[in-house]
Amino acid sequence: MARLGYAPYDISAAEMRFVVGATTGRYGRVAVDAGCGLGGFSRRLRRLGYHVTGIDYSECSLEVARAVGHGPQLRYLCADLDDGVPPSLPQHGVDLVVARTVVPFLAKPVEWLHEVRDWWLAPGGQVYLVVPISQQPFQTGHLTPTEIDVLCSGWQVKRRDVDGVAWISLRPNTP
Ligand SMILES: C[S@@+](CC[C@H](N)C(=O)[O-])C[C@H]1O[C@@H](n2cnc3c(N)ncnc32)[C@H](O)[C@@H]1O
Predict the structure, then answer these.
(1) Best mutation site among 6, 62, 105 for ligand 1 pocket (most ligand atoms within 8 Å of CB)
(2) Domain 28-83+92-172: what homologous superfamily?
(3) Which residues are within 8 A (CB) of 130 and not within 5 positions of it... i.e. 6 or more apart?
């Protein structure tokens, strides 16, 4: 599928407006695109001025992503998100962590988000998730509305639902 360039959820202009509106920043920000797949969103982040690391455990997808272009400010890393913080990421050094249609595939989505908050994010950092919504539990790659509420609990949330998909911007609650 990766070699055919299959990316299941298109990145629309409306989604990019949501992302830009929900994120604040300065030049030189650091972003991680977790579960980057073919790197479509990683490249969008680069165009927004971020220094980007795309992470995926599929070497095949990363090969396709790298073939489109990579360099010091857009790099790709093969790692399993379920294995903890990849050693080459700066701890407490990431301004924006993106996970587009990835979190439902992780072994422990809530715990992973806590790890992102506690170890990955720089002060003032935030998270952007895209989560396909299902009304029935155990639908692969989806979460139910209740599961999404649990995922977002304890965060400051901006959310928009479009065509059965939730765009979610999260900021850690200030202590
Ligand atoms: C539905 S695709 C989404 C790809 C990309 N984020 C996008 O928006 O097009 C899910 C991606 O997450 C990756 N993935 C799933 N579980 C992962 C894990 N535990 N560690 C790293 N990557 C993972 C898959 O290899 C796949 O590329």
Answers:
(1) 105
(2) Vaccinia Virus protein VP39 (3.40.50.150)
(3) 9, 15, 99, 100, 101, 165, 166, 167, 168
